[in-house]
Amino acid sequence: MKATVWAGRNSVEVQSVPDPAIRNDRDVIVRVTSTAICGSDLHIYDGYIPTVKHGDVLGHEFMGEVVEVGKAVSNLAVGDRVVVPFPIACGACSACERDLYSLCENSNPNAGMAEKLLGHSPAGLFGYSHMLGGFAGGQAEYARVPFADVGPLKIDDDLTDDQVLFLSDILPTGYMGAEMCDITLGDVVAVWGAGPVGLFAVASAYLFGAAKVIAIDRVPYRLELAGRMGATPLNFAETSVLEELRDITAGRGPDHCIDAVGMEARNGSRVVDAYDRVKQAARLETERPHALREAVMSCRNGGTVSVIGVYGGVMDKFPMGAVMNRSLTIKTGQCHVQRYMRPLLDRVCGGEIDPTMIISHHLRLDQAPHGYEIFKHKQDGCTKVVLNP
């Protein structure tokens, strides 16, 4: 089959790789009909995620048709359309029983590798390094789905792939980012990053009752899209974010701040930006945490900082003094996607959220290298690339 594989820093290739096969009775094989390039895939593309190997199949946002079913899977049948959540979860461990699916204790066969960096291992993930299981991803013609009796969500035929594909990751992630804020009616929410996850966080904050949502980015067309979703756009390249947020909130700061950027954030200050870019390039830190620092410093006293942008290891100059002395609450995590898929599907069907509005490009699978380039460099108005094998 054809698949998108990592070919070194800033390089992906579409190559022929072996077809997946059933390895466990709880597996299914899915013929992928739609898959997407995620912002967190760019961290792999840029070479900042450890334990990625040349030839690893990428991608963790995918859906398709079940073509083969393991003996222990009774809830799916050949021909079913399914969306596959990016965390792989057994459904029976202590974490899964608490709906903390991205912390599954049984799905990462390389847990020892993760423990060395993270202390304890999270769940295995599709297409996201050997430290997180080494599972082949979904930017391919076919994919093996472990624990398929727990993860995949069946989809009715009257819904298009574009309407439901993002249930695999970014829609639940943005929603969880807003949910962790414990928003009450009338609250002000600031979202760093007007990419796909940030945009879904904007939409979700309004669903939870926010009175005003501010979207912070530096790319004009992304800020324009955030504005169409009801957010107040704020270009950090043109103004001081801290000062603008104080002005908007009469000096208090936003009630809740959501970091939807993660480890490769940019900063309006050339000096600060250069500092972190050099340290990251020299592997003296794995993150450029500008967005997170700014979120902490901007948030009102006693407010919440919700972190859904991906981080991989360690960072420098984190303002812990502000967190402690100002009674801030930090909530974070890889999304527990299985918890949210059905409720969010109901919201999509009810017209409360339109996931299709963030899609800018449909490309063939063999055009994946081009998709990565335009997504990374914000070219051609690219907000989200969907690949169709």
UniProtKB/TrEMBL annotation:
UniProt key word Metal-binding: yes
Top-level EC class as recorded in UniProt: oxidoreductase
Domain Alcohol dehydrogenase-like N-terminal intervals: 25-153
Keyword Metal-binding: yes
GO function term, MF aspect, one: alcohol dehydrogenase (NAD+) activity
Cofactor: Zn(2+)
UniProt domain Alcohol dehydrogenase-like C-terminal: residue ranges: 196-264
Entry-linked InterPro entries: ADH-like_C, ADH-like_N, ADH_Zn_CS, GroES-like_sf, NAD(P)-bd_dom_sf
Gene3D superfamilies: Medium-chain alcohol dehydrogenases, catalytic domain, NAD(P)-binding Rossmann-like Domain
Keywords assigned: Metal-binding, Oxidoreductase, Zinc
Family annotation (SUPFAM superfamilies): GroES-like (SSF50129), NAD(P)-binding Rossmann-fold domains (SSF51735)
Family assignment from sequence similarity: Belongs to the zinc-containing alcohol dehydrogenase family.
Protein's name in the database: Putative zinc-binding alcohol dehydrogenase
Organism of provenance: Mycobacterium pseudokansasii
